């Protein structure tokens, strides 16, 4: 059963929805027009309950099946990215400086397609909670929805999500049990000294040599402190300081990100970064202030739910990889998986520009695969009595 016939029948409708969403990208928590579009479609499909305003602009739709049973959550993210689009598509973003460069327009469309099919057929027991969340790219709309009590409010027992994959063949599902995406921490180190004329360094406390030494030493966290068999990344991505060739600045700022899967290694990386900044500052006679922010936790798939998801994926597509190597990207679906068992999968859309690239565009041919996966998952999890 490659794609559910009924879903294939309205594939053109899904394409129209997706391209409309692509033309009207919204950022962060402020996905109000997108939410209205989603809510209107859910009501049009006959979804039993449509709840709006979760995490500012999130939407949850509830479809009741035939008789009592569990509640499964299916999640899609709605927000776009603050970048200019270069696809040249007829349905390109109409808002300068914003584009759907991560496929969230496609994720929303796939879940809408599943909602339409499930509302029509209702060939399942219990209920389905359709979760449309904002702010995956920024502050974690998924975290906010969990903290607001979404799981308890809708009695969700398990939760699943898909993410488009421009590195996989069309219709290819990729996943794994256990950690699949990393925890992400962001940090800023501000090195302060005494500025002055560059011709008279003896009268200054130059923060620049210290900042450069910190930047070099940070690379020893992975190479000399972490277990070589553990996965970790410490990336220095920004250096800001100075205004002229002949001025020693008062401060230099370094910024970057740390990615890990293991909680102890996450603690180690933070501790070593703080120690390196303090030690180098002391040796250079300046000060170093560290602002370390822990963001999304690792995305960890539950074994039983991942096994079921793989079986469902195989029924939808003959292309399934169930031992995907963990990736260093991060996902706020991690908060939902920390709250309830479930699984996160990638869905190939054919090889092309990477997500977060100005030429990226979701492949509409992938949407029927995703919608069919969600629909078949509910059929397997919650067969009618």
Secondary-structure map:
Elements: H1 5-9, H2 11-23, H3 32-45, E1 49-54, E2 58-64, E3 71-77, H4 104-121, E4 127-133, H5 141-147, H6 150-153, E5 158-165, E6 173-174, E7 178-181, E8 183-192, E9 196-197, H7 207-217, H8 220-225, E10 232-241, E11 247-248, E12 251-260, H9 263-284, E13 287-294, E14 299-301, H10 303-316, E15 320-321, H11 333-339, E16 342-348, H12 367-381
Parallel strand pairs: 3-4, 3-5, 5-16, 6-15
Antiparallel strand pairs: 1-2, 2-4, 6-16, 7-14, 8-12, 8-13, 9-11, 10-12
Helix pairs in contact: 2-4, 3-4, 4-12, 7-9, 10-12
Written overview of the protein:
- It is a single chain.
- With 385 residues, this protein is of the alpha/beta class.
- It has 2 domains: 5-181 and 299-381, Aminopeptidase; 183-294, Alpha-Beta Plaits (2-Layer Sandwich).
- It has 12 helices and 16 strands.
- The strands form 4 sheets. An 8-stranded mixed β-sheet has the order 1-2-4-3-5-16-6-15, sandwiched between helices.
- Helix 4 links the parallel strand 3 (71-77) and strand 4 (127-133).
- The model has no long low-confidence stretch (mean pLDDT 97).
